[in-house]
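lol forgot to send this yesterday, sorry. struct tokens for the thing we talked abt
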């Protein structure tokens, strides 16, 4: 039984989570936006005794996967096999409780997506359009925008892609590029006519406007509603549902070789294919019965697909229900910066699981308490540590542990009988009874942070009760009252085990095991009689442990190292300076000299003082490279290049008679330039 009257009309729930794209592993941004909230929702509905199906899988088609495969010299199938396994395994380890986690490259999905297209095609639901597109004559194929590079018309970057210039961030059309080249053959592409099918979204506008902007005003999240409204108000355009590509679901129409279903068309049909895989002949009611509630959990970048395009596809088919809600989240940032797969600026789930074994719930808790439900939010390792140490350890863990330890100390691990509840007890019992509904109602309204905070408030109530009653002192003066206090504290622990389960299921399992609690539904929570007198409690174990500064520092350093690498990777050589004539160059007198002495200039951190044998005698040159040569005496005997006719100048009181040449590497290090063989000191360079 759910708390929302609307939900009480439903017989079953079909819950989907966005299909992660299988060209990389999953990171905390995905978890916060989609998977943790979806899993909390599903686990809660199951605890409510609802009939729920939770669908997930990998999205394995599309151009980026083919590009990654080409870069690595493997097949697209190799790429998706690799990441599907990593993603699937890491979700399972984090306890994301899919009923099925499948993939769009499987034959069942190809068959379903193909039949779906064919039905709409046969019924004339698409419009056919020809357009001009770039074609590679050597590779014999049409080119996706990403497969074309050229010069950006806005900033002159020579490596802009056909869909975007990464240097200036402008989105482009392939035809905007100056000197376009195919990434396949390196040749300039030619224009050719190609035919595609389009979903006429412009015709869907009236019912979409009514369905979303009228019917779902107020029950869809404001960020979702707002985005839909601006799409609809801007006027919907027909969207191509096919592409020229050789990786994907083949278009099931004769004479369309080399064409596949556009990935955004085939991916959401995956939810249906996977349902068929899971339920067999019983699949239809999960998608076609009006008593089924369909909910899509997605990130904000997916709103248009799940709120407008996929519903338009479902409506065009005619026999499907539409989603009742699409609770999309905003984005999670990492340490103040946007998460980026290409820049490796992320906390990867599979790495976290390796580096923090047994701490799935700490991540689930941190992510959920910080989920970007109404605006973008930030994940920091400091906050992760704080949430663990001062909430999980200090509030929930502490309360449960104190209660269980005292039960063992005073009653040999058996639940003591309680006497009459006094006024304080009654207040606590009354308050405890409100939590199942408080937590449940927040979950049903997709306010997971609020739900989690309420669950923790019950642990706070428990802690306060212990502090107010002090059973560790009370035992000496009033053993009977102590038994009552601990009985009630144990009841709170049992309630927590039920109410924390959607959020931190591993901890809930542990609490059930320690307290020998049978599996309980949500409806049992809120009562002070979950544990009977004499019920045996196992030896307590700590639910959580402190995370120390060194562990957090190691993670922060890992990110700092990524940042440093990114800066190096972003390095580009300086622009070539203005042209100089041979005569101008001839004015520079560059020579080779041998280092006779080299010392630090006193009171100047950056400067080294060289004494150079220059073929005519010796000269002193001061150079600002001390930071890169911490042992200057080791330079004695080395040959360096210097400008012999450089105007003398005084540096920190030392007259420098020339300039020593060095190269500045991309990380800013200065490296002395030296001839590749010993030469006669004083000879010219040129
Ligand atoms: Zn540009």
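and heres what i got for the seq, position by position
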């Amino acid at each position: 039984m759910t708390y929302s009257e609307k939900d009480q009309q439903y017989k079953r729930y079909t819950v989907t989570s966005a299909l992660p794209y299988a060209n990389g592993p999953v990171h905390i941004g995905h978890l916060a936006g989609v998977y943790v909230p979806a899993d909390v929702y599903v686990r809660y509905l199951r605890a409510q005794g609802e009939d729920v199906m939770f669908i997930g899988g990998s999205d394995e088609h599309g151009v980026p996967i083919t590009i990654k495969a080409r870069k690595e010299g493997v097949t697209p199938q190799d790429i998706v096999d690799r990441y599907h396994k990593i993603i699937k395994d890491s979700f399972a380890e984090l306890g994301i409780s899919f009923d099925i986690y499948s993939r769009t490259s499987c034959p069942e999905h190809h068959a379903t997506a193909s039949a779906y297209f064919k039905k709409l095609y046969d019924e004339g639901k698409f419009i056919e359009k020809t357009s001009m597109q770039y074609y590679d004559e050597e590779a014999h194929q049409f080119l996706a925008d990403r497969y074309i590079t050229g010069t950006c018309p806005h900033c002159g970057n020579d490596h802009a892609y056909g869909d975007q210039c990464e240097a200036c961030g402008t989105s482009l059309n392939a035809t905007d590029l100056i000197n376009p080249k195919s990434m396949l053959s390196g040749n300039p592409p030619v224009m050719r006519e190609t035919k595609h099918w389009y979903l006429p979204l412009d015709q869907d506008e009236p019912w979409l406007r009514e369905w979303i902007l009228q019917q779902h005003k107020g029950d869809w999240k404001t960020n979702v509603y707002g985005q839909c409204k601006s799409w609809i108000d801007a006027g919907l355009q027909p969207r191509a549902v096919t592409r020229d590509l050789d990786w994907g679901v083949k278009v099931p129409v004769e004479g369309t070789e080399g064409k596949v279903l556009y990935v955004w068309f085939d991916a959401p049909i995956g939810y249906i294919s996977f349902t068929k895989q899971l339920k067999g002949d019983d699949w239809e009611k999960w998608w076609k019965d009006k008593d089924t509630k369909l909910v899509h959990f997605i990130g904000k970048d997916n709103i248009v697909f799940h709120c407008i395009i996929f519903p338009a596809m479902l409506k065009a088919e005619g026999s499907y229900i539409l989603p009742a809600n699409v609770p999309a989240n905003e984005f999670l940032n990492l340490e103040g910066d946007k998460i980026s797969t290409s820049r490796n600026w992320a906390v990867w789930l599979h790495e976290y699981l390796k580096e923090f074994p047994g701490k799935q719930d700490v991540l689930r808790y941190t992510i959920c308490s910080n989920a970007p439900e109404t605006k973008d939010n930030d994940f920091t390792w400091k906050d992760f540590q704080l949430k663990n140490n001062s909430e999980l350890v200090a509030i929930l863990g502490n309360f449960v542990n104190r209660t269980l330890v005292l039960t063992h100390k005073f009653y040999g691990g058996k639940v003591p009988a309680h006497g009459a509840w006094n006024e304080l007890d009654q207040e606590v019992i009354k308050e405890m009874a409100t939590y199942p509904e408080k937590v449940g109602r927040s979950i049903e309204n997709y306010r997971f942070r609020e739900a989690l905070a309420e669950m923790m408030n019950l642990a706070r109530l428990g802690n306060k009760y212990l502090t107010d009653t002090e059973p560790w002192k009370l035992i000496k003066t009033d053993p009977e009252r102590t038994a009552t206090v601990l009985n009630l504290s144990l009841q709170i622990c049992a309630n927590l085990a039920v109410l924390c389960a959607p959020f931190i299921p591993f901890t809930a399992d542990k609490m059930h095991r320690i307290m020998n609690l049978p599996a309980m539904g949500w409806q049992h929570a809120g009562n002070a009689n979950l544990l009977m007198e004499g019920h045996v409690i196992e030896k307590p174990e700590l639910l959580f442990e402190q995370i120390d500064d060194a562990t957090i520092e190691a993670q922060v350093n890992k990110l700092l190292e990524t940042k440093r690498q990114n800066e190096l990777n972003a390095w580009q050589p300086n622009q070539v300076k203005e042209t100089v004539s041979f005569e101008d160059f001839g004015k520079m007198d560059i020579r080779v000299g041998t280092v006779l002495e080299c010392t630090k200039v006193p009171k100047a951190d950056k400067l080294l003082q060289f004494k150079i044998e220059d073929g005519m005698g010796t000269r002193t040159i001061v150079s600002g490279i001390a930071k890169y040569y911490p042992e200057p005496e080791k330079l004695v005997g080395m040959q360096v290049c210097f400008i012999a006719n450089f105007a003398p100048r005084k540096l920190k009181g030392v007259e420098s008679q020339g300039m020593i040449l060095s190269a500045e590497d991309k990380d800013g290090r200065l490296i002395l330039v030296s001839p590749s063989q010993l030469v006669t000191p004083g000879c010219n360079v040129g």
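The chain has 20 helices and 26 strands. anyway ping me if u want another try
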